[in-house]
Design goal:
The protein is of the alpha+beta class and about 375 residues long. Helix content is about 15%, strand content about 25%. A hairpin with a 4-residue loop joins strand 3 and strand 4. It comes from Hamiltosporidium magnivora. Pfam families: zf-CHY.
Length: about 375
C-alpha cells in the first residue's frame, strides 16, 4: 500500500493490525499553537488526531487523500499552514496520484455528501492586527447586516462603480484614476471606521456614485476575538464558517449598503438682490420662478417634489416664498415688487395652486395632452 522505509526516515509512526498512525513533523517556526498532529490510516480511510483543529478544516484535508499515504503526508506537511488558515491549497497533488481502488468512487461520493455543510473558508489575520480608526465625525456609507458571533465588522476598502461627470463613462474604482475617454481625473477617497451603522466616509470628485461592487470585510469572533477577512461578498450573500480558535459558528449576511449624499441648504445660496440659481425654477416646474419655504422642516425647495426627494417626511403647504429674480423672502403670491409675475393661473400647477389631474384640466392647457 505504501513504502514504510520512506516514512521511517523522517517520521514517527506506530503500526497496528489494521492501521498505521503517523506523527507529522511540525516546523519550529509554526505559527499555530499545536504540539502534535497524528494521522491514522486504515484500508480506505484517514483520520486526524488533534483537538485543536476544527472539524471543517479536517474535512478539507480528508478530501485530498487518494490512498497514497506517502504523497498525502508530504503534501499535508507542505500545506499545513494553508489548511489551518481556512484556505484550500492550489496544488497538482491529485494529478500525481494514480489509484485503482474501486472503492474510491464510493468514498468520494460520501465525502461530497459530508462536505455540503462545510463552511466557506476565511483568511485568519495576525493576532497583532490593528483595526484602522479615523476621526471623521460624519459618515455617508451606512449598512445593515445580520451578524452571528461577530463583535466588529470593518470594510478596509470599498470597490464601487462610478460615472464620469464629463463623458458619462462607467468605471469600477477603488482609488483615483484618469478617465481614458476624456482625461478627467476621477477622485475617490475612502475612510473606514468601526461602527454598528456605518462603514465610513466616501469622498468623490468629478464622478457620480452608481453602485457598490463585491467587497471583502474584516470581522472578529465574539467569543475568542480572533480576526478574519472574508472572501468578496455582495448584498444578501451569506458568509459562514467555524472559528479556528473556539469553533463557534460565525455568520455574516449584508442586507443593505447605502451611500448618502448631503447637500448644502439652499438658504446659503440666497443673497437679496441677486437672482436665484436658474431664476428659482427646477426640472419639475420650469415656469415657477421661486423657492418655497415649507413649515414642516423650515427649509427652502423649488417645489414639493424636490422637497420629498431630499427629505424623509411628508411636505406641508408652503407659507412663504423667495422670489427667483430678487431673492426677497415674502408671503406666497403670484408676483413680486421687483417685476416678477406669474402667468395667469391655469388648471395646472402654478404657484402652488391648480391641479395636476389631466381629466379636469382645461382644454386650453397644453399640459392636458402632454405625455
Amino acid at each position: 500500500m505504501f513504502n514504510y522505509e520512506k516514512l521511517l526516515e523522517n517520521h514517527k509512526f506506530e503500526r497496528n493490525e489494521d492501521s498505521i498512525t503517523i506523527e507529522l513533523n511540525i516546523p519550529e517556526d509554526f505559527i499555530y499553537e499545536i504540539s502534535s498532529i497524528n494521522v491514522i490510516f486504515t484500508n480506505c480511510e484517514v483520520k486526524l488526531l488533534c483537538d485543536e483543529i476544527p472539524e471543517n478544516i479536517k474535512e478539507n484535508i480528508y478530501r485530498f487523500y487518494k490512498n497514497d499515504v506517502f504523497l498525502f503526508i508530504t503534501f499535508l506537511e507542505e500545506n499545513l499552514e494553508v489548511f489551518l488558515s481556512g484556505k484550500i491549497p492550489k496544488s497538482d497533488y491529485n494529478s500525481q496520484i494514480n489509484t485503482n481502488n474501486s472503492n474510491m468512487s464510493n468514498i468520494k461520493e460520501n465525502r461530497n455528501e459530508n462536505n455540503k455543510n462545510i463552511c466557506k473558508p476565511a483568511i485568519l489575520l495576525p493576532d497583532d492586527y490593528v483595526y484602522p480608526i479615523n476621526d471623521i465625525k460624519s459618515f455617508n456609507i451606512s449598512y445593515k447586516a445580520d451578524k452571528k458571533n461577530i463583535a466588529l465588522l470593518l470594510a478596509e476598502k470599498l470597490n464601487i462603480k462610478v460615472l464620469c461627470n464629463k463623458c458619462k463613462k462607467h468605471y469600477n474604482i477603488h482609488s483615483r484614476l484618469i478617465c481614458d475617454k476624456c482625461n478627467e481625473m476621477l477622485i475617490y477617497e475612502y475612510f473606514s471606521t468601526l461602527s454598528d451603522q456605518f462603514f465610513g466616509f466616501i469622498k468623490l470628485e468629478n464622478c457620480t456614485f452608481i453602485a457598490f461592487n463585491y467587497n471583502s470585510y474584516v470581522i472578529n469572533c465574539l467569543t475568542c476575538s480572533k480576526i478574519y477577512r472574508t472572501t468578496e461578498i455582495g448584498i444578501n450573500t451569506q458568509f459562514e464558517f467555524k472559528c479556528y480558535g473556539c469553533y463557534s459558528f460565525i455568520s455574516l449576511t449584508l442586507k443593505d449598503i447605502q451611500y448618502k449624499t448631503y447637500q448644502k441648504s439652499l438658504s446659503s445660496k440666497i443673497k437679496v438682490g441677486v437672482p436665484l440659481p436658474e431664476n428659482g425654477t427646477c426640472i419639475h416646474y420650469r415656469k415657477s420662478f421661486r423657492w418655497f419655504r415649507f413649515p414642516c422642516c423650515n427649509k427652502l425647495f423649488p417645489c414639493d417634489i424636490c422637497h420629498d426627494k431630499e427629505t424623509d417626511h411628508c411636505n406641508e403647504m408652503a407659507n412663504k416664498m423667495v422670489c427667483g429674480f430678487c431673492s426677497k423672502e415674502q408671503s406666497v403670491k403670484n408676483n413680486c415688487e421687483c417685476g416678477m409675475t406669474m402667468k395667469k393661473s391655469t388648471a395646472h400647477w402654478e404657484g402652488g395652486k391648480g391641479t395636476r389631474n389631466k381629466v379636469v384640466m382645461s382644454k386650453k392647457d397644453n399640459k392636458k395632452y402632454k405625455k
